[in-house]
Amino acid sequence: MEFTSINVKKERDTVLRFRREVFQESFGSSDSMNEEDYLDWLQKKAEEFPDGMKLVKKKGEPIGQLELSVREFRGRIIGYVHLFYLEKEWRDLGFGLNLYNYAMKFFRGKDITEFHLRVAPENRRAIAFYKKLGMKEAGEELNGKVIRMTGSVNTWNL
Fold first, then answer.
1. Of 21-25, 55-59, 81-85, 148-152, where does mean pLDDT reach its minimum?
2. CA 1 from chain center: how many Å?
3. Which CATH number is 2-152 given?
4. Is the sign of the CA dihedral 82, 30, 96, 137 positive or negative?
5. Is the entire prediction scored with pTM above 0.90?
6. Which pLDDT tens digit goes with each residue over 111-123?
């Protein structure tokens, strides 16, 4: 498994397909996704956090995507997982731990001790996976559309 920097122009179709799949799984539809806004945002984040915006590849083929950054939340600097995604056929095979370990290394390199992500309440599978990693639910946001989850940055890999 390899983590490669995202070239938004070159990999436009792949990142849009992955993002659409996330919207579909999380919200039942990708209709509310603004593709051009997402691509603009991803380009800016890829420039700001080149080691945080990654395509996950197996034998050169994209199988997932990670979007990691550092931001302020309620007066604290935290790590943030914007996207933690593996295609369905690559789930439940241990690859999620590789993504998690990459994220922990990214956050440790930025001296981050706490990280957050948001997940749709309907995405029970993802919530169970995040809880298995030690994350906790911190409450609903966006009128119940998402749950914020928090975790501690491990000093070791799983």
1. 21-25
2. 17
3. 3.40.630.30
4. positive
5. yes
6. 999 999 999 999 9
